Every structure is written in C-alpha cells, then in structure tokens.
Amino acid sequence: TPPIPTRIPVEKFPEQEREAYIDGNERACIAEVLEQRMDRRNIAGTLSQEVLEEFRLTALREPEDGSHARRQITASERLGLSVEQEHAVLEELRYQYGLNAHNHHMALERFAARRFSPAEQSAVVENALRVMSLTKGFARLVLLCGHGSTTENNPYASAYHCGACGGNPGGPNARVLAALANKAQVRQELRNQGIEIPEDTWFIAGEHNTTTDHVTLFDLEELPESHRPDVRQLQLDLEAVRLLNTQERLARLPGAPDRPSPLTAAGYASQVSRDWAQVRPEWGLSSNAAFIVGRRSLTRDLKLDGRVFLHNYDQSQDETGRVLEAIMTAPLVVCQMINFQYYFSATDSWAYGSGTKVLHNVVSGVGVMLGRHSDLQTGFPFQALTTGARRFHEPLRLLTVIEADTERISQTISRHVVLQNFFNNQWLYLVSCHPTTGEFSEYQPGGTWKAISPPIS
Questions:
Q1: Residue 84's pLDDT is what?
Q2: Model pTM?
Q3: What is the enclosing helix (H) or strand (E) of 232?
Q4: DSSP 206-223
Q5: What is the pLDDT of residues 406-415, one digit of tens each?
Q6: Are 382 and 359 in contact (CB under 8 A)?
Q7: Helix axes 171-181, 184-192, angle to 10 degrees
Q8: Distance CA 177, CA 162 (A)
Q9: φ, ψ for residue 145 (rounded to 5)?
Q10: Is 443:430 a contact under the CB 8 Å cutoff?
Q11: For residue 168, which phi and psi values (nearest 5 degrees)?
C-alpha cells in the first residue's frame, strides 16, 4: 500500500468554495510579488487580507471612479508605495502573473469543470462497466487496475506508462472509478439503468508496475472491515503472481539471469528499475501484434507471450451496438497508435525512430537529439526494438479480432471515417469471429467479408 494514504476527491466544489480557493491563490500571488519588491522582513506584518484584497480587486479591473482609486492608494500608502511603484506592481500582476479579469474568469470555469456532478458520476461508472461488459456477476471484490512503470534516467519513461492515459500512470484513473463505483447514490442510479451491484461488492483501485510487477492497492483505509480478509488474500495472490510473471518476462529480456528462480527474477527486476545505466528496463509494448475484443473464453487457453491487447466484450450484452462502437473508436484507436509507434520505429529506426541511445542528448526536457546537433527524434530507439543481436519487435500492422457478427462491425465502420481509413487502406487488419457459430471472416477493402477458416469449436 502507499506509504501516505491520500484521497481522490470526486465531488464538485460548491461555487462559493471555488471562488474562495481562487481568490486565496490570487492574494498569495500578490503577497509574493510585494515581498519580492520590498524588504520581506519589514513588510510581512503589514500585508493584511484587506490590503491584499484591495490590490487583487484593482488588478482584476481598472478603477471605475475616484473613490475606488483612493481606496487603492490608501492600501499603497500603508506599505509606503508611491503611485509609480503601485502602478508597477499592478502591471507586473496583470501581465507577468496573469492576474486579470479574463484569467480570473477562465480559472473559475476550469475549476467548475473539474470533478463530477451526480449525473456525471453515474454516467462515468455506467459507461466504464458496459464497455468492459461487466454488468452482472459481480464478486465481493472488484479490482480496477491501471498500469505504470518505474525507471531512472530514462527519457522514454512515458512510453512504459499507459497509452490511453496520455503516457501517464493509470492508477489515478482507477482510483476515481473505484471511488465513484462505491458511492451509494451512484449504485442506486445504476440500478435504474439495469446494472445491479450487490451491496457486499467493493471496488478497489490498483496500479500494476510493469517493470517490477508490483501491484499497489490504493485507498485501503476506506475498505470495510468485512472485506479486509478478502484483500489480504488478494495481496497474497498478487505477490505469488508477481514472482511467476517476472520470472517469465525475464526469459525474454537481454542481460537477465539465465533461468532465475522467482525470487532472483524479482530482485533483478527491482534492480534494473533503479539502474541509471539500464537502457532496457523492460520491453514495454514491444512485440505487440494483435488486439482481441471478445469474451475471455476466446483466449483463455492460449499462450499469447505478451503480444496481444485484450478487451472484454460480450455481444449478448450490447443490444444497440453502442458498446462495440465505443471500443472501436477509443481503445482500438489507442492500440493502433501504439502499434504505429513501434511499427514505424522498427521499419526505419533512423528515419522514424530515434537511432541508438548511445548518441542521445536530452534537449530541455522536451525530446532527444543525436549527439551535439540533429533534429528532435520522433520514435523509439534501437534498444526498445532489438536485443542487439536480433529484432524483438517485428514491424507488423495490428491484427484486430472482434467477437461480433460482421453486420454489426460493418455498421460501426460505416459511421466513422477514421475506421474506414484504417481498414480500407489496410493499416490494420480486421477479422470477425461470429459469437455463436465461431466462423472467422476477414474484412476486405471496400467493406466486404471473406471466410478464412472453419469455425472454432
């Protein structure tokens, strides 16, 4: 568990609290500016809230009459500021620190957009559960697990985080969703929408560190006493899986011990996550080749070697086709983006990737260049794609397998130009697995389908 428990706030701030928060930040900014311009020791006792508020109001709007101007001059006189000094402070506040009416209103609007209204809370949970086809059969514990990584001295750190999270760890998203799903008001609204979550079901958030295979569980201080034995067992299971998964992963990682025990493998993974000289702390999503959308029974007995994105989908729970449309226009697009990053980097690493890490110089925290001068590099380095002796990532265009009938898939493609571009131009390959007959069909440019194999049993 995290060493310092924190809470993820999800409720919207009341309007008065939003204004009080922003006003307070503006007054703090004014105090900092005044202290920088004057003797910090002599001014600290005279910076009352009244003085700061007069400066704030004047910075937010030009004086409309003489009385307001005189009030501001009074505040300046308390600080021993001349008219010229007062004017300089206001100009600095408005134009260097952005303390003006426009930015004030923009801050209020941004603050109002943060967090979730009651309607938004239930909508977020409902959409998430339906997209995962998790609308019935809830266990006592439901683990919502994001992923991230731990590396040091690595300009490509974000490449090991979550692509759907913009190259950031996914734990915060999992925490928000779990917090919302545990709210009684949200569950009542979900019942009205046909999703019945049992009273003894508790959602728990986690984050899988893909470098070390540790899974951190969040917000355990909120856990009901009745579920603590379940979580203790979950933690034991996660630790056992961590050791075995790390042992399996390291068999593919250059430089790792040969046939290590689970404990030795775990120790090595922890070591490389902290090693400043490590050019390949993990493979990340290198070797990705396919995206399978369907029930887990479709892949349960297959060994996929970490090469396939998996997304749960049950057509029988998707009467309107909206869930499939959401999957094909969001997760599928993210997988395509990831696949293209690796595809083009592996096709020509010097033109579309970033060459070798041996030559890299980090530029102002925004990118890398080769040696002393070059263009900023756009893709992955050799070390993310090869072992040094052979390719690890083959430049394959993503194969998408969807367990749904061809008519439903075609209808979704017909409504979205981005999907038409993907499949009609064969940037992605698409196969349908019929959910009842098990027949496979391959999508052809132009929108037709071709049977490609006998049905699966």
A1: 84
A2: 0.81
A3: helix 228-250
A4: EEEETTT--EEE--GGGS
A5: 999 999 999 9
A6: no
A7: 70
A8: 16
A9: -120, 120
A10: yes
A11: -120, 160
